[in-house]
Amino acid sequence: MIQDQTTDIVTTARDAFNKGFTKNMRYRLKNLKNFIKFLEENEKEIIESMYEDLRKHREEARLEILIAINHLKYLINNVRKWSEPDMAEKRWIDLLDGLYIYHDPLGVVLVMGSWNVPLLTLVPVTGAMAAGNCVVIKPSHTCPAFGNMLARLLPKYLDPICYPVFLGGIEETNQLLNQRFDYIYYTGGATVGKIVHRAANKYLTPTTLELGGKNPVFIDSSADLEMTAARVMWGKCFNSGQACIAPDYVLCTKQVEKEFIQHARTALAKFFNNDPRCCPIVNDFHFKRLQKLLRGLNVVIGGRVDPLDNCVEPTVVSGVSLTDPIMQEEIFGPILPIITVNDFKEAVNFINRGEKPLALYIFTKNAVVRDYVIDNTSSGGVTVNDTLMHLIVESLPFGGVGLSGMGCYKGKDSFDTFVHKKSVLVKNFSKIIEKANEMRYPPYSSRKTDILAFLLKYRRGPSWIWLFYFSIFFIGFVVGFLIFNYFALLHYTK
After folding, report:
1. pLDDT tens digits, residue range 191-243?
2. Does the CA dihedral 469-471-475-480 come out positive or negative?
3. Which residues, in sequence order, are bridge partners of residue 405?
């Protein structure tokens, strides 16, 4: 029964794609604009669903809606230009030919959302839509209220044949992954990411995996530690620390640690008024996991928990070593370990001993330190002197590397991810070109090959676009000169 349902959804979407519905630019723009209407007209329902699933603060939910709308507007303003064929660089032998790169939509795309930021995982959906694909939208079963809201309301704004919402748990998801898609986008943890990647291998389906990891924060002694503490603790406590790009641990010297803890304590008191219930955790499993990670650690800020309501107070722990359980997995909660190092080079060595993180945060006023850390580490993205904020810049790609993921999206990358760049060469029947073509025809000779090698040789030189600009300038100069002389002649003949 489930198999039949998933087959019907994918088959129907593929039929619609093959009929060219989603390739039409007016159709794409209409649905992207309707997506904005969905977000604006149903803000209350969206916020309520996220609160029911995650107890997410209303203003955090509003911020997610704003980010999604901004990304949609960015797509709408640029998608026509992105969809036009690009002109490729020409060689001498190609001067009379057309060299183009077309942007073909891939077909039927599966986007699997995460539970921690269910709304922002719709951003890749909009990128796939802008690229001209049909999209099967699979919300996380861990957020049932959000998924039910999406399945109930989104079809009122988007074509449900081309953009169906599919609900279900693990069994239904496995059945969905048995279907043949042209692209799969998944947001979540590495364990499930590996399962998705294995399923994609059956049909050699390309994938983007936006996963996570232990995102380090290096704090240099030159940083403004009061601002640093506020920005780090905000990033750690946003969505109760349940974010793939949340700061995971801090690296700093002993002296910086002492000052940072003081400022972090002040910042948290200002943020939450010492309310131990300010960071609700999504479910019992994750609450108990965080409780277990706290055992035996030196708590310097916070540490209180509420088992009745699955809340963990924002917590800072010090004296942590690499072998402690809290350093063996992504924390995904409002607990921040501090590990002391002697300098920025030791911090870089520490980071490079682990897996490549999804995000890296550097706090420093020293350009030498900043550039050294950036140049000698590998991560999905970097924010200097803040946390999380690189995610909301529409023009910056977002994605992981190594175990933190593969592929990227956001802005133009959301479009490029879901298209195939198709090479198109348009030859003509010019007799001049055919004389050059004769060099490749039998009977072969050394002379022919030498001439062909000369014509095909790659030469670095000025782009042909500058020749075009020069021609326009020259024509404009000549026309201007003639007009000037014409009026001058009229003046002197009066």
Report:
1. 899 999 999 999 999 999 999 899 999 999 999 999 999 999 999 999 999 99
2. positive
3. 210
pTM for the predicted model, two decimal places: 0.88
Q: Are 261 and 316 in contact (CB under 8 A)?
A: yes
Alpha-carbon distance 459 to 454, whole Å?
A: 10
Does residue 244 carry a catalytic annotation? yes
Tokens of 306: 């509420």
Strand partners, 337: 317
Of 259, 272, 275, 35, give the one whose Cα is nearest residue 157.
35
The residues, ordered by sequence, that sit 6+ positions from 170 with a Cβ below 8 Å of its Cβ are 141
CB 121 within 8 A of CB 113: yes
C-alpha span between 308 and 277 (Å, rounded): 11
Q: Is 210 a catalytic residue?
A: yes
pLDDT in tens, 111-164: 999 999 898 878 999 999 999 999 999 999 999 999 999 999 999 999 999 999
| Catalytic option among 134, 162, 244, 408 | 244
Helix/strand/coil for 104 = strand
The pairing of strands 315-318 and 419-426 is unpaired
- From 64, 210, 313, 330, the catalytic residue: 210
